Amino acid sequence: MEKTEINFGFVVGTTSLAFVVSQLDVSIVNVALPQIGKSLTADVSTLQWIIDSYTIAFAVLMLSAGGMSDLFGSKRLFQAGLLVFGVASIGCGLAWSSLALIGFRAVQGMGSAIMIPSSLSILNHTFSEEPKQRARAVALWTAAGGVSIAAGPVLGGLLMQLSSWRMIFLVNIPICLIGILCSTKLMESTKNGKSGFDIPGQLIWMFAITALIASIIEWHHLGLKSPLIYGGIIVSAILFVLFIWREKMAKSPILPLDLFNSTNFNVLIGVGVLFNCTYYGTVFILSLYLQNVLGYSSLTAGMAFLPLTAGFIISNLTSGKLMQTYGIRVPILVGLLVFSIGCGLLLVAKPITPYWQLLFPFLALPLGMGLAVPAMTTGTLATVDRSRSGIASAVLNTTRQTAGAIGVAVFGAMATGGPAAIVQAIITSSISSAVCVLLYTCFVFKYLKNN
């Protein structure tokens, strides 16, 4: 029993390192945006690209990475992803211009795309014969990512106080090295020799996502009447249709459409999309709000996000216990309701708002998301055969990262124009997010079944 517990902790701890660095770099950059903007002379649109170049690369390559994990084995892909991410982090820390930083951020996204599906696949294979252990492992894995995404602004503020914004990238290097060394003791997963590569599908998917998000980011500067904007949206729509057609025809599609024959799979993917779109976009504009409207320093702004860390720790661990008792449905429904309340509470954000009023939404948002995400992840993996866990994980994380990039693009576009625009963006986004989450909660209640 003692040996099992040691192995359990080692496997979960090692695979969680990948999720920690990937999620850390989603949020740690947010608190550094004003300092990066001054250092590299970057406007809000450029800052959006610094955030979204990472998430776009993450999203567009993860489908292929999921198939590669099933084809070559998750352990190899896990190690390769950590290596790419670590090297790219060095480049980000030494970036000499905003364009260079955007480029290295994209390479970081590639590393994340490689290592995240493989890390989740390792967990699914290792504990495939023990559903309760698998649920517990996924809950802890998700908790590590949730805590890191919430702790990112806090750690970023501390690092910038001690050094500069460059340190927020260089801190990834020792984590990646530890992950590579520890992963040598992990078991290799079962390989699926039927997997393959769909290069045309990958290229179509990449251009479709990039065209859509680029159009959203740049519409404020160029205007909706610009042919580059409406042309980009039209091209993106055409490419999405072409992508679906290609995946139906391909012998080895990067997105097997039969996955969507499962109602549970579809509902759970929707939960992930909704959470990432609203949460990523909200954290982006809240970082601007705390520093550009309320006048907080980078350290103070980082510490202001501390309740998010506490909320994720509590809710992620609670989610695992709820799953063991009630299955996946209850924690997801409760999580959605609490998250919608947190979105609504952001209406307190004004040009002058005392911090204690922000505590309530800063706690409710991670509490809701942390309750639902582990159950959502566990439920998604349970809908597929374990030989396809890599691609199932890739689909889940691809849609979530795409939604996160769109959330940053949309919310950031609303916040362009100074302090007044930032406050108005928070009000608009909080109302729309709360309504959307509540409506989807009703949908989940009707269609989601316990696994």
Quick overview of this protein structure:
With 451 residues, this protein is mainly alpha-helical. 81% of the residues lie in helices and 0% in strands. It has 2 domains: 2-197 and 252-447, Growth Hormone, Chain: A, CATH 1.20.1250.20; 198-251, no CATH class.
The number of helical elements comes to: 17
The domain tally reads 2
Using the 3D structure, state the CATH architecture of the largest domain.
Up-down Bundle
| Helix and strand element order | HHHHHHHHHHHHHHHHH
CATH superfamily of the largest domain, by name, is MFS general substrate transporter like domains
Q: Measured on Cα atoms, how large is the radius of gyration?
A: 20 Å
Anisotropy-based shape = globular
Query: What distance lies between the first and last C-alpha atoms, to the nearest angstrom?
Result: 27 Å
Computed structural class: mainly alpha
CATH topology of the largest domain: Growth Hormone, Chain: A
Number of strands: 0
Name of the CATH first level of the largest domain: Mainly Alpha
The helix content is: over 70%
Mean pLDDT: 83
Largest pleated sheet: none
Poorly predicted ranges (pLDDT <50, ≥5 residues)? 1-6
Proportion of beta-strand residues: under 5%
